[in-house]
Amino acid sequence: MFNPISQNKPTSGSQLLSELGGTALHGAIFVLLVLGVVGLIYKALKPGGFLGRWIDTFWHMHPGYAALMVVAILAGGYGFKRWLDASSMNGARGDILVYAGLALGLFFGFQLIVTGSI
């Protein structure tokens, strides 16, 4: 990326254009990640969102089913965490979360462009 403080200034116009293109690409990736995370949070917490419906369904369940669901969610979360921690986050497993965020960002960006809302 272009660093204006660096002593290694781009020497040609094509090198500067290449640096600006790389910076624009990184900026677009960042915007997609932020759009994916914010869109997911909005969809979960808006009135009538999926988190509210799940909590309402959970609240009206039989206590035995509710306890079984809590145990299943905790076990699934623990298994997912162990799977992610099994290797370093520099590999492909750590990239899964970034790719999921980018996919959500693309989905919510397309939805925002087509319908005008998330």
Q: Keyphrases for this structure?
A:
mainly alpha, 118 residues
Describe the structure.
76% of the residues lie in helices and 0% in strands. It has 118 residues and is mostly helical.
Main β sheet profile: none
Determine Rg (CA atoms, Å): 21 Å
* DSSP, total strands: 0
Q: Which H/E pattern describes the elements? A: HHHH
Helix content: over 70%
Structural class: mainly alpha
Contiguous uncertain segments of 5+ residues: none
Q: In one word, what is the shape?
A: elongated
Number of helices: 4
Q: Strand-residue fraction?
A: under 5%
Question: What is shown here, in short?
Answer:
Helix content is 76%, strand content 0%. The chain has 118 residues and is an all-alpha fold.
Walk me through the topology.
Blueprint: H1 13-45, H2 50-59, H3 63-85, H4 92-115
Helix pairs in contact: 1-4
